[in-house]
Amino acid sequence: MFFLRFLAKRIVAIIITLAAVIAISYIMMYASPGGFMSTTQIATALAPLAAQDPVAYQKVMEQFQQRYGLNLPLWHQVLLYIWHSFTFNFGNSMENPSITIMSQLKSALPISVILAFASVVVSVVVGIPMGIIAALKRNTWIDYTVTTLSMFGQAIPSFVLAVIFVLIFGVVWQNVLPVTGWGTFSEAILPVISLAAGNIGVVARYMRGSLIETMRQDFIRTAKSKGVKYWPLVFKHGVKNSLTALITVIGPQFAFTVVGTVWVENIFAIPGLGKVINTAFTNFDFPLAITAVFILGATIMVTNLVVDLIYAWVDPRVKLQ
Amino acid sequence: MAEALLAIDDLRVQFDRGEDEVFAVNGVSFSIAEGEALGIVGESGSGKSVTLMSALGLIRENGKIKSGTAKFQGHDLLKMRPRQLEDIRGRDIGVVFQDPMTSLNPVMRIGDQIMESMLTHQYAGRREAFERTLQLLHEMGIPEPKARFRNYPHEFSGGMRQRIMIAIALACEPQLLIADEPTTALDVTVQMQILALLQEQRQKKRMSIAIITHDFGVATNFCDRIIVLYAGQIMEMADTRQFLRQPAHPYTVGLKNSIIEIGQRDRQLSPIPGMAPTLTEPPKSCSFASRCPFATERCRSELPALREISPNHHVACHRAEEVLAHAI
Amino acid sequence: MAIAVSQAGPVAAPKRHSQFYLGWKRFSKNYFAVAGLVWVAIFFIVGIIGPWIAPYSYKDADFLAMHTGPSWKHLFGTDTVGYDVFSQILFSIRYALEIALGATCVSFVIGVILGLWAGLAGGIADVIIMRGVDFMFALPSFFFALILVVLLGKGLGPMMLAIGVPGWAGYARLIRSLVLSMRNGEMVEAARALGASQSHIAFKYMFPNVVGSMVVSLAFGIPYDLTAQAGLSIVGMGLNPPMPSFGNMLAAAGENILGFPWLLYFPAGIFAITLLSFLFVADGLQEAFSPKGGM
User: Which residues form the signal peptide (chain A) (predicted)?
Assistant: First the structure.
């Protein structure tokens, strides 16, 4: 019961936030000089079509009029747009009116999601052991190496790393790993590493700090006083306590990674949502742009909710509220 | 006197603080007999916890044992390899710590925490350990042991958690229980219950208890024998009765005078002026001299040795006899 | 039933240094942070004098020397249109700094105003502002920046606003928590109990704390804004060409990399080292001045 109320509250919050995001985007694009949603602006956008096929142009034009409620007052347009978005009725792209946005998302979204999740998984799998080793070997060269590498990973944005990878594997060691495309395992390696590097740094540093802090706690001394051996002490008492705290950084890291996918996809020419965002924004294809942001935002917030649920499940002290 | 269970001899412990070193324990020697309740009394920073915790290998990394022996049943704990010491901790020597709020693992069920030491030491099999845990919880006065087994520490009150701590320490029926400020973090009424519980368990199991406390009252109520530590040195060591009747060290006199006892509302409370020192050099004179009303030139230049002024009554004071005379 | 010990007695007062002095001493022991600071300082100096020492204008393409490798004439080579990469970098540093500093100022000013308002006024204003903070934290501010670029355009000023405006939430939350901790902080309570005057409390205790936390959060903010700015270029929403920027160079180099790798060595290298230096400095400041705080 308690749990259901928490869930309902969070889902309502997500819906409100997403609605606000759509409203803000819509209003901004409405007000922008490049212009959303005035008949003349759409006419300009569809000019090529008009030249080619005036009948089809007229049809598309009417569709737009009706769909976006262009004669209605702004607030009504906004509500209409929000309603369309939440019913997954995204309409057609402006740049390419024959293609539905839904079909574009269907092929692009899974790629971005796989990319983001893969890099979060890699960063956790690599970062946690790195952090544990650094913490246990504190103030040795191993620790210094891990912390310095983590700083590098954290400081250098994924797109710079991606560009450097393209330089290394596209120019120096050609044919070792592919630097463009998507679909095979080897094509995923460089993008995932570019995205994971920063997260590995964050996870490793957080894990290190957290484990060092945990190993200083009184309950570790209690466990020692019971005669618990070193490795059970480190893992059952130390790492387990640190891990629960680590879960809290996964959520923000995921959001950070999603932004990273937008960048990295553009550098490695991966046909994901990032590429869609690029073309949508540069072509002023606003329905597509808003929808892409909407979908990424929803993915991030739902993931955060799941992370919170996992946290509550793992740490008995956390109460959902 | 019965045979010594734990005999500590000339223990010296230093802590490296980077810019300087702290001399926490400076040549402490004493023993705990089988079945005895020993009180180790001192202010914070007097080295009272460090003395016993260093023998068990439970001090922080920057603490170094410089010399001494700590013979438990004839074997020197300080020379043992970590593995051997792990076998003794929890099985032969149990420890109860001060703060029950932070001394229990927050993400582990309390039942598992109690069972852990039994399983580690192969004291009992899984099933047996489970039964014994329920039994222990019951003995500790925790209602509904079966239901509580699966609870986490944050679902208990402070007093209850301290009972769980004691259950953990007693799980393998150790011969020696070290209780480091077991009641300090608790309410006064709960303090009494916990002490009574310890006393009861001690009589039932015939184990030795070493209580480390800053509370002279707790020590005199609970212990057969008391050691007073100051600046990492023993100031006075005697039977409790002797302590109450004939304190021979000015510091002990001060401690005794600073106790508030029920029904003594009119008595003048006389605190000891000054603060306990933190030694950054080994002591060359009496550490208490700066706060001592009896101090002379000799006290400020010569380190008083611990000497036996009457049978089983040891004092480290140049002017012990005069103190005795003065007090009477 | 406890030992009562009075805390009086002669205690030698240790020599007192200001918090800033102590912080600086801790900072200067951190070699990474000092090295980072040196690079950041160079970066700033180049940012100021860059346009004067640049051998070519960023607008003048040398059509006779398109995509040539590094030479004495063109230190870092030229790009596909014949722009001198060295000059482009000098101008990029200038614009990158202008945008990053401007954006950080915008975030900071909005954050301070809203944070102060929330903290001091409390009540409904506090609730609304903190809801706004939650909203901003729910999604990456990069998305908001992207949408703002659509509205504002791709000039220098618009870039500052597009990156700066969505960044207010962190500062607002920090300032609000500082205000609240000042009003009912234990330290202030203690100082007041000892009879310290209001202004004395403000300058001696609050001011260093607040400045420490703010400096640290600003130090983390600048590299973040540098990254956001280049990230916008990567998705084609960065500073309008031909104005040079690291993001544009990286994005362009990504496309032309196979033939002309020198287009990449210098921009990518300098940009990476700069961000690393900023992070080292920020990290060093955090450790030196506000061990717990930050954003």
Answer: none
Of the candidates C135, C140, C235, the beta carbon closest to that of A266 is on: C235
- CB within 8 A of C67, min separation 6: which ones? C77, C78, C79, C80, C82, C256, C259, C260, C263
Query: Residues C210-268: pLDDT tens digits?
Result: 787 888 889 999 999 999 999 998 888 888 877 888 888 888 766 666 667 777 788 88
Contact C7 B275 (CB under 8 A): yes
Partners of residue A314 in chain B, C-beta under 8 Å? 107
By the CB < 8 Å criterion, does A59 face chain B? no
Taking only Cα atoms into account, the Rg of chain C, rounded to an integer number of angstroms, comes to 24
Is residue C43 a contact partner of residue C93, using CB atoms and an 8 Å limit? Answer: yes
CATH superfamily of C20-289: MetI-like (1.10.3720.10)
How far is the alpha carbon of B195 from chain A, nearest alpha carbon, in Å? 20
How many domains are contained in chain A?
Answer: 2
Instruction: Return the CATH number of B4-230, one of 3.50.50.60, 3.40.50.300, 1.10.287.130, 3.40.1010.10.
Output: 3.40.50.300
Nearest to A316 among B91, B107, B168 (CB): B107
Helix A101-136 and helix A141-155, axial crossing angle in degrees, nearest 10: 160
Whether residues A221 and B97 touch (CB distance < 8 A) is answered with yes
- Do A35 and A41 meet the contact criterion of CB atoms below 8 Å apart? yes
Query: Hey, of B213, B258, B261, which one would you mutate to test binding to chain C, going by the most C CBs within 10 A of its CB?
Result: B258
Instruction: Supply the ipTM of this predicted assembly.
Output: 0.87
Find, among C106, C125, C127, C128, the residue nearest to C117 by Cα. Answer: C125
Which residue, chain included where needed, has tokens 């930050």? C294
In tens, the pLDDT along B25-38 reads: 999 999 999 989 99
DSSP for residue C240: P
What b/e readout covers A173-195, taking b as 16+ CB neighbours within 10 angstroms? eeeeebbeebeeeebbbbbbbbb
Nearest by CB to C3, from B258, B273, B274: name it: B258
Contact A226 B165 (CB under 8 A): no
Q: For the whole model, what pTM was predicted?
A: 0.84
In the listed set A56, A86, A116, which residue is the last one of a domain according to the structure?
A: A86
Residue C12 touches partner B, C-beta closer than 8 Å = no
Amino acid at C18: S
Closest-CA residue of A relative to B156 is A317
Does B19 contact chain C (CB < 8 Å)? no
The verdict on A52 touching B (C-beta cutoff 8 Å) is no
